[in-house]
């Protein structure tokens, strides 16, 4: 089942998501549906708050970037109850987009490396370091679990310039190629 993507303006996107346990009801189905939703929406990552669930899960699949970064060939993972241990390295800028902010792309600066502890879909614990594009995706999706969006990294001027677009998203006046759930006003 494809979920509609929760978009800017919905208060759920600004809440800190809650940890879950391995007995969380319907977990496998939620993860399966998240994959389907992400692929249908042409995303490389999706966090549970983006499908209206305030739980600490995100998924990533950056294998499509393997042409440019061969180490991404097998970068398809589920992150449950993740905790960033540290970010470090040189800050670099990349143009980011987000399924919850359709039609908006902006340059965002993030550290090159992220060390994160998480459980996979089988509740096996991992601690890994991701760098480059993989590290950026992990940081972006993790932010969703903390109630942050990539626009929070923009200057006040840049945010003012986006105000009209953000208002249109919040009012459901955008038509991306995937289903969205606009905030109820």
Automatic annotation (TrEMBL):
Binds 1 Fe(2+) ion. It comes from the Bacteria. Fe cation binds at residues 98, 140, 144. One of its GO terms (molecular function) is metal ion binding. It catalyses: N-terminal N-formyl-L-methionyl-[peptide] + H2O = N-terminal L-methionyl-[peptide] + formate. Transmembrane segments: none annotated. It holds the Pfam family Pep_deformylase. Keywords: Hydrolase, Iron, Metal-binding, Protein biosynthesis. Its EC number is 3.5.1.88. InterPro entries: Peptide_deformylase (IPR023635), Peptide_deformylase_sf (IPR036821). Its cofactor is Fe(2+). Coiled coil: none annotated. The active site is at residue 141. One of its GO terms (biological process) is translation. Belongs to the polypeptide deformylase family. Removes the formyl group from the N-terminal Met of newly synthesized proteins. Requires at least a dipeptide for an efficient rate of reaction. N-terminal L-methionine is a prerequisite for activity but the enzyme has broad specificity at other positions. This is Peptide deformylase. It comes from Maribellus comscasis. The gene is def.
């Amino acid at each position: 089942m494809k979920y509609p993507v929760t978009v800017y303006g919905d208060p759920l996107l600004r809440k800190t998501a809650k940890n879950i346990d391995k007995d969380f009801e319907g977990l496998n189905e939620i993860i399966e549906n998240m994959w389907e939703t992400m692929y249908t929406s042409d995303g490389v990552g999706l966090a549970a708050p983006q499908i209206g669930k305030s739980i600490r899960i995100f998924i990533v699949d950056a294998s499509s970037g393997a042409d440019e970064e061969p180490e991404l060939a097998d970068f398809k993972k589920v992150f449950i109850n993740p905790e960033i241990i540290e970010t470090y390295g040189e800050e670099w800028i990349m143009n980011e987009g987000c399924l919850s902010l359709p039609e908006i792309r902006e340059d965002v600066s993030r550290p090159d490396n992220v060390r994160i502890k998480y459980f996979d879909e089988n509740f096996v614990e991992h601690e890994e370091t991701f760098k480059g594009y993989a590290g950026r995706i992990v940081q972006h999706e993790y932010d969703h679990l903390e109630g942050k969006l990539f626009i929070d990294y923009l200057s006040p001027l840049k945010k003012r310039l986006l105000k009209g677009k953000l208002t249109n998203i919040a009012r459901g006046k955008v038509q991306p190629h995937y289903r969205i759930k606009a905030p109820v006003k």
